[in-house]
Specification:
With about 210 residues, the chain is of the alpha/beta class. It has helices at about 15-25, 30-40, 45-55, 60-70, 90-95, 110-115, 160-170, 195-205, and strands at about 1-5, 30, 80, 100-105, 120-125, 130, 150, 185-190. It contains eight helices and eight strands; from the N terminus they run βαβαααβαβαβββαβα. A hairpin with a 5-residue loop joins strand 5 (about 120-125) and strand 6 (about 130). The protein binds zinc ion (ZN).
């Protein structure tokens, strides 16, 4: 069974993918994590991808395809893919090579998305994650664990969030809109608890 999760930043896509992965016993493949793996390990593809991300841009398709294809090859029995496809050409690439069974859209309005993402911080020393909405530090701007300074990821600043939202609406909104698709589509309202969202997705698939 092959499942695609699509959602704006902050919709909880990664969290839902991980929960679903456990319940369905399918591997969760996050294109974001895949890019980071390549970037951290300075693979040939990773160095190229990094130069795109640094400018707040999406990585060019030819490099994305190489990374995604090499990864999906490992899982002939199915996968949960999140973060890909983000554009129509990427969708075409995927549908030519794989049968997709379910497409799950995780919906969240731009304001709430912005609010959630701009609340994300981490400790620059021990890398502990914080969130000013869900997981506040005891002292503003200081890590509870090690006293380090809390910082934002460079792509979680307002400028980059707005840029990504715009790209999402311009490009990603257009994927999986075929009139007679072979895959089933679910739209989930993500302004609810993690558990409610998860249950709705599982009920849909089962
Ligand atoms: Zn720390």
């Amino acid at each position: 069974m092959n499942i695609i999760l699509i959602g704006v930043q902050g919709s909880g896509k990664g969290t839902q993918a991980k929960l679903l992965s456990k319940v369905l016993d399918l591997p969760h493949i996050s294109s974001g994590e895949l890019f980071r793996y390549h970037i951290d390990n300075k693979t040939e593809l990773g160095i190229i991808a990094d130069s795109y991300i640094n400018r707040g841009n999406l990585v060019a398709d030819e490099y994305v395809y190489d990374m995604v294809e090499a990864e999906l090859k490992k899982y002939p029995n199915g996968f949960i893919l999140d973060g890909f496809p983000r554009t129509l050409p990427q969708e075409n690439f995927l549908l030519e090579k794989y049968k997709i069974d379910y497409v799950i859209w995780l919906e969240l309005d731009d304001e709430e998305s912005f609010r959630r993402i701009s609340a994300r911080f981490h400790c620059e020393d021990c890398l502990q994650d914080y969130n000013l909405i869900y997981k506040k530090p005891k002292v503003d701007g200081i890590c509870d664990d090690c006293g380090g300074k809390l910082v934002q990821r460079r792509d979680d600043t307002p400028e980059y969030i707005l840029k990504r939202q715009k790209k999402f609406h311009q490009k990603t909104r257009k994927v999986f809109q075929a009139e007679n698709p072979e895959y089933k589509v679910l739209e989930v309202n993500c302004n609810r608890s993690i558990e409610d969202i998860h249950n709705e997705i599982v009920d849909f698939i089962r």
